[in-house]
Amino acid sequence: MPGIDKLPIEETLEDSPQTRSLLGVFEEDATAISNYMNQLYQAMHRIYDAQNELSAATHLTSKLLKEYEKQRFPLGGDDEVMSSTLQQFSKVIDELSSCHAVLSTQLADAMMFPITQFKERDLKEILTLKEVFQIASNDHDAAIHRYSRLSKKRENDKAKYEVTEDVYTSRKKQHQTMMHYFCSLNTLQYKKKIALLEPLLGYMQAQISFFKMGSENLNEQLEEFLTNIGTSVQNVRREMDSDVETMQQTIEDLEIASDPLYVPDPDPMKFPVNRNLTRKAGYLNARNKTGLVSSTWDRQFYFTQGGNLMSQARGDVAGGLAMDIDNCSVMAVDCEDRRYCFQITSFDGKKSSILQAESKKDHEEWICTINNISKQIYLSENPEETAARVNQSALEAVTPSPSFQQRHESLRPVGQSRPSTARTSSSGSLGSESTNLAALSLDSLVAPDTPIQFDIISPVCEDQPGQGKASGQGGRRTNPFGESGRGTRSETEDSILHQLFIVRFLGSMEVKSDDNPDVVYETMRQILAARAIHNIFRMTESHLLVTCDCLKLIDPQTQVTRLTFPLPSVVLYATHQENKRLFGFVLRTSGGRSESHLSSVCYIFESNNEGEKICDSVGLAKQIALHAELDRRASEKQKEIERVKEKQQKELSKQKQIEKDLEEQSRLIAASSRPNQASSEGQFVVLSSSQSEESDLGEEGKKRESEA
Length: 708
Fold this sequence. Notes:
- Among the domains are: 17-71 and 79-217, Arfaptin homology (AH) domain/BAR domain (Substrate Binding Domain Of Dnak, Chain:A, Domain 2), CATH 1.20.1270.60; 220-261; 281-394, PH-domain like; 498-626, Roll (PH-domain like).
- A hairpin with a 3-residue loop joins strand 9 and strand 10.
- The N and C termini lie far apart (140 Å).
- The chain has 15 helices and 14 strands.
- The protein has helices spanning 17-49, 54-66, 79-96, 104-148, 157-210, 220-257, 360-374, 383-397, 404-409, 422-426, 434-439, 468-472, 518-533, 611-680, 689-707; strands spanning 281-289, 295-305, 308-312, 320-324, 329-335, 338-345, 352-356, 499-511, 540-546, 550-554, 561-566, 570-575, 582-590, 598-607.
- Helix 1 packs antiparallel against helix 2, helix 4 packs antiparallel against helix 5 and helix 14 crosses helix 15.
């Protein structure tokens, strides 16, 4: 006969909703078998009880056998074979119903005994195991609920031990009961065939032995058919015995192997955390807010499917989408009085969910898995190998390595000596040192033993004397009404460019070079690696305001300016080559580690897929600032030219006035010389007062000319 569907005993410990749904199908099948077998038992019992109604009872049996093909058994994988077999039996029984008589003893031994055993023993065993399993499942859920409510702040060793022991006992009881229950349901599929075929076979054999005159109806062809059915029943029985033995062995092996897994929080030394997973499934407690401050926790089965996090309640046939975890952020959080909580935030920041894992191992594995999925590692050909390489790169990124001098002294020829000022002079000329920079390791871009700063407080506020004024404005709240307390306007109000972006601060560190985008990529790699190694998932969200004067980090809640970066000090900015959400810029500041020279600090941020837009905006701001500076210089030069022209014009006007005065004085002198000539000839000329004044002025003009 064709193979029979079976419940997977290996998945009883996981107890997933899929397993429960499959169990519901088997339970429904058992109920259908029980209903059908009760009808068949009543029909055969009528044959046994009343010989006078033998013909009617046989007819009813034939009718029921004909209706078998109309039954809808959920696990009716062999319905065609069984239907054809029972149809053949129905025809023969219907033909023999008019002349058929069965002795009570033969019917009791050959027909009633097998079906009675199946009804009274096998079906009742299924019902009993179902009740026991339901009780064990409820006890396990109650124990898990009490364990999940253990206080993290007020830990009681005695209470924790009692709850843990309760979870261990209830889980073991549920697992064992569930395995035996699955075994009985799987065995029922074989017993169903035996309970259907064996009574019929006994009934027919009793008829053959009882009726001497049955040779007309019971021909050799029918005997051959019955022989084949008997052989099939024996084969089914042997297959059932073999399968039962295999299942019993599987149960014993699983009981031994699963004993450590009954503990809700296993030993991490025996069961290490796997950080390379790209798929995970298991039960989690999800927090649902019921009010402003109140919330409830629901236990559901969660599993990852591609870039989606799916949830499925017990009893559901399929799971539903809980959240899109592509490009999401995940971090461990302290939530109320529960342990092992973590928060998932969607890529746009509009949706977040807080979940609670059952153990520390599950807690870390869920965070690592979601983090790997967020990086879209699952799209590669070998996701686990890719995740392993990424994690290994993260480990190597924070592993102590030889210093820059030691690593590159080994690459130099023996006879070549390196001047002590080679590093400082290499940053001065770009053309001659560009080829050498490509040959150096990326470690030369970052200062050795440089600490990484993960919070929003950065050296821009403390170590930069030139930015004292800008940093002093960091605590001033932006006035929403456009007014100022001192009557002066903000510098950014006059800016042509105002662009606002949502960013999350990842970290900052001091760098050696600020003329190569590789320094930004290397800083990104080291900061992300350090966050992954140290399990730092918290990020401060801010609003980045890009203007033509500066870059500002503004608190989205209070609108207070956290940091101000002068735009001329931003000497380099770049986006990650693969992950366009990451971007960074290098700020050239005075001071730092050494007060004698300028230092450079690289700041790394994460945006909502706007890294390139932010870099383009910063570039546009710098271009606008450059053009504004050029226009200012041109305007100043034009004003200087106008001032020179105005001065020359004044000098020219003054010179013309002097010439005019000289001409007037010459005319007066000429006029004054005429009366002197007349008086010398004995003639007298009376001068008016005006003429006398003009003569006086003429004399003064002569004196001035002589002095000149």
